[in-house]
Specification:
Elements: H1 11-20, H2 25-39, H3 47-66, H4 77-93, H5 97-109, H6 111-126
Helix pairs in contact: 1-2, 2-3, 3-4, 4-5
Protein name: Transcription factor TFIIIC subunit tfc4
InterPro entries: Tfc4/TFIIIC-102/Sfc4
Length: about 130
């Protein structure tokens, strides 16, 4: 639905899904990007409102993605890297490169930790 040129038509479906699963990081990310993409259109009515709403849902997504799991296990390095990338990419989309570049650099700096975690996970599965 969000792939079409009518971003706002996807929002009611996303909000229905959010009502069923408010802690679903994926739904929060979709809502955030829908608001931001809608706000960036040339003929939007209230650009600031859309960006603010989008950033609010983006922060909720980020918090959900980097929060430790209920079992007490900390967030995976790959999830943190993903959340940082999506945040930096959003800053880039908004033209805020002074915020995006440090975010991208942070993502690249995490690569070694993500690879190490993936290798460790592969060893545990192979045991």
């Amino acid at each position: 639905m969000a792939i079409s040129s009518h971003f706002t038509s996807a929002l009611p479906y996303y909000f229905r899904a959010l009502a069923l699963e408010p802690d679903n990081w994926s739904i929060n990310l979709c809502i955030a990007l829908t608001y931001i993409h809608q706000a960036m259109k040339r003929q939007t009515e209230n650009r600031h409102y859309g960006i603010q709403q989008g950033l609010g849902f983006l922060q909720r997504y980020y918090d959900l993605r980097v929060t430790p799991t209920p079992g007490g296990e900390g967030p995976k390095a790959g999830h943190i890297q993903e959340a940082e990338y999506n945040r930096a990419r959003t800053w880039h989309l908004l033209g805020l490169t002074h915020l995006a570049i440090p975010g991208y650099e942070k993502v690249l700096a995490m690569s070694a930790g993500v690879l190490a975690e993936a290798e460790e996970g592969g060893r545990r599965e192979g045991e």
